[in-house]
Amino acid sequence: MTAIRRRDLLTAAAALFAAWRLPFPDGAQAAETRYFVNACSTQDGGTLTRVFDAAGHVVATLPLPGRGHGAARRPGAREVIAFARRPGHFAVSFDPLSGAAARRFDAPEGRHFYGHGVFSTDGRWLFACENDYDNARGCIGVYDATAGYRREAELEAYAIGPHEMVLLRDGRTLAVANGGIHTHPGKGREKLNIETMQPSLAYIDSESGALLEEYRLPAAMHQASIRHIAVAPQGTVGFVMQYEGPRNNLVPLVGFHRQGEAAITLPITEEATLRAMRQYCGSAAMDASGQVLAASAPRGGTITFWSVAERRYLASLSLGDGCGVAASGEAGGFIASSGYGKLVHHNALNGETRALNDPAAPEVAWDNHMLALSI
Amino acid sequence: MIFERQLKTAAAVALLACGGAVAVQPAPAAAADYAALNAAIVDDYVLPRYAAFAETTAVLESELRRACSDDVLQAEEAAAAYNDAMDAWMAVQHLRFGPAELFLRNERIEFWPDKRGVVGRHLAQMLAEQNPKALEPQTFASGSVAVQGFPALERLMFDSEASTWETPFGCAVSVAIGRNLKDIAAGLLADWQGGEIHYAQVVRSATEGNERYFDAKEASLDFAKSLRGAILLVQDYKLGRPLGEQPESARDTRAESWRSARSLRNVLVNLKAAQALYEVGGDDSFSAQVRQHPQGAELDRVIRAALERLIAAVEAEPASLVAALKAPDGWDRLDAIRTEARQLLELMGGPLSEVLELPMGFNSYDGD
């Protein structure tokens, strides 16, 4: 078994190197290679997800039945889940090195995906953020990867709009970004409860479904939708927000918390930084070392970087319509993607930036989210 | 010939897209004056167009009253007024924000596309019930949106089945629609010009930030999205839906305004409205701001040329899409127009958004 898989991997890698006319390095198969998954749209409106390497070279392409959103890596397997963008119903499991789709499965009747999910540490259970829209209730679908992604259970999200979640290092606790915004597929993407929305950060026991801890924003900030979340190896979570209140009211858009702390930390941020972010963060990512949180702000055309230890703003990178961001693997390093088709590597600790490019791949508009994985 | 021209745009798209992919960041443009652009668009584009819409719908109302003076609708007497009002509507149809979003105005003016045949159903029901109370202004305006606007009026005036509706009540319905359209158009203009909403002022005061706009740039984005929206309407809805993917799958009754034989006249007015929006404002126009960008001169030339080619191509067709499809190679010619419109959309969502720093398409404004 192991030998066959290994040979497949070698063949795939050799083909890859041959395709780029690069010498095939001996022993390359021994070390893990980092890959990135990002949904995108082609110029003629096709929807797909692409897998590329650290140089930006496309490794695999998976056509999607509609616009994709986030992705989840299945631990211990060469398998990634690509989720539909809300209010979509599809999810596709595929091999990130070949692009071969293994299975499509759907959110059940009365639920749609929000576009994000995460696996249990053993790779068996997939947790997916879902909308029980007729009841205006957020929930987490639990799918068994060993049974063809049969939906086995449903956990409460304890709020409306669970959008993204991470699994903490205990391998059991889910930290959930509950956006608080009620939408119903019968009304498209219209926001139905802006006046009364109550976003939250919820810690949920993935085994019992119990609510362990729950944090709200100060009352004056209840219209800041907690949308995306990332976790550092040391356990601090960073979350990023989208403000739905009056356009001339500047509010913090980035928060930090560590399970057990009495309250959320909202770093005090200079007005110029907040203005540049234009009240909207698109995605969150933690660097591999857990020192830096990246919060993309596509409306402002900027990716902002934040010190996790000091919980403060560090610096930013200008990237028009830049949204997808993921840890590149080096300390402080991120890869970011943009709706204008750009891929950039940036190190927030030393400020170095370089453009990535695959001259052989057709131009695409990169969608909101990037996932990093090592195989 | 149009195919040849189309290749040029395709090549330009590829060229501009590749050029954009090399640099990490666009070269900084001379600071775009979004406030001046917004002011010019409001004064020289939005207000006169809504004024024309208010004026033509007022004429339409009085012409419908006149055409109904014998209790039977003499449709041909009001046809010119109907066409003028439709032209005025097509000239503002793409402005889908601000006052247009209030009170379901967009849907009430024109419930389209009507994928489930709601207009015909609700209109037939209303004509069968013959309830005069349903036509009282307040009741009518808060009833079914499907019978309140142009599509229902078009059926009453131009549908071959109209003879079955040639009753005094059918006439009263057409007058009610005329009055309703006049009221909606007057409301749109009033809300832009003053009153509690005073949207022209909301746009002008965006410079300092207000509840609606973060800054002037965000207000410019609404206009940029309207520009792209006009082309998207043409490409996706007005041509894409009736044409289908192959000539065999064409369905001309999916076209907008097919009963009044003016589907392509609608497209033409939409395209001219897009062209005017791109160029209004002199040195502050979208076009001028693109030209001021270090890499913008070629992009501006390609966009203007594409708009001109599209307009010329549609002008060469009959006003009726049904008629255009019946002509030899008609489907191919319309498909070529659709293709060119799609390439223009790519330019707008990509290089134009990037150069203007106004993302019209993708990550920034879909709220995820």
From the spread of the alpha carbons, the general shape of chain A counts as globular
Termini Cα gap of chain A:
17 Å
Architecture per CATH nomenclature, i.e. the level-2 architecture of the domain at 36-202 in chain B: Up-down Bundle
- Which spans of chain B of ≥5 residues are poorly predicted at pLDDT below 50? 1-8, 13-29
Question: Which percent band covers the strand fraction of chain A?
Answer: over 45%
Q: Going across the major beta sheet of chain A, what is the strand order?
A: 3-2-1-27
Largest interface, with counts of residues having CB < 8 Å to the other chain, equals: A-B, 42 and 34 residues
What fraction of the residues of chain B are assigned to beta strands by DSSP?
Answer: under 5%
User: Class of the domain at 36-202 in chain B, according to the CATH hierarchy?
Assistant: Mainly Alpha
Largest sheet of chain B: none
Mean pLDDT of chain A: 92
| Tally of DSSP helical segments of chain B | 16
Number of β-strand runs of chain A: 27
Could you state the CATH homologous superfamily of the domain at 36-202 in chain B?
Answer: M75 peptidase, HXXE motif
Descriptive tags:
heterodimer, A: 375 residues, mainly beta, 4-stranded antiparallel β-sheet, 2 helices, 27 strands, 7% helix, 46% strand, globular, disordered N terminus, B: 368 residues, mainly alpha, A middle domain of Talin 1, 66% helix
